[in-house]
Amino acid sequence: MFRSTLKSLACGVLLPLTICTAAQAQQPSSGGTLQLVVTPEPPGIVTGLVTNTPSQMVGGNIFESLLRFDQSLKPMPALAESWVIDAQETTYTFTLRQGVKWHDGKDFSADDVVFSLNTFLPQVNPRWRNIMKAHVQSIEKTSANTIVIKLQHIFDPLLLMFENGSMPMVPKHIYDGTDFAKNPMNNTPVGTGPMKFKEWVAGSHIELVRNPDYYIKGLPRLDRAIFRFIPDAASRAIAFETGQVDVMTGGSLESADVQRLSKTKGVCVSTAGWELFAPLSYFQLNVRSGPLANKTFRKGLMYALDRELIRDVVWSGFGEIADGPISSRTRFHPEKAEPSYDYNPEQARKLIQQSGYKGETLNYLVAPYGEIWSRTAEIAKQLFSDVGVNINLITTDAAGWNQRARAGEYDITNNWPYQYGDPALGVSRMWVSSSINVGSPFSNTGGYSNPEVDKLFERGATASAAERPVIFKQIHNMLADELPALWSVDIQFPTLYRCKVHDFVTTASGANDGLLNAWIEK
Amino acid sequence: MATVRFVLIRLLKGAAVLLAIAALNFFLIRAAPGDPASVLAGEAGASDPIYLEQLRQRFGLDRPVIEQLAIYMKNIATLDFGFSARNNRPVLDMIMERLPATLLLTGAAFVMSLIMGVVLGVLAAVKVGRISDTLITLFALIFYATPLFWVALMGQVVFALKLGWLPNIGYVTVGADLTGLAYVTDVALHLVLPAMTLALFYMALYARIMRASTLEVSGADFIKTARAKGLPEGYITRRHVARNAILPVVTLAGLQAGQIVGGAVLIETIFAWPGIGRLMFDALTQRDYQVLLGVFFCSSALVVLFNIITDVVYRIADPRIQMKA
Amino acid sequence: MNGLLKTFLHFARNRGAVVGVVVLLLIIACAVLAPQIFPQSPWRMVGRPMMQPDFGGRFILGTDVVGRDIAAAVFHGGRASLLVGLVATAASLLIGVPMGALAGYFGGWVDDVLMRLTEFFQTIPAFALAIVIVAILQPSIVTIIVAIAVVSWPPVARLVRGEVLSLRSREYVQAAIVIGQSPLRILFTQILPNVIAPLIIMGSLMVGSSILLESALSFLNLGDPNMMSWGYLIGAGRTRLLDGWWISFFPGIAIFLTVLALNLVGEGLNDFFNPRLRERGER
Question: How close is the nearest chain C Cα to the Cα of A519, in Å?
Answer without folding.
Answer: 30
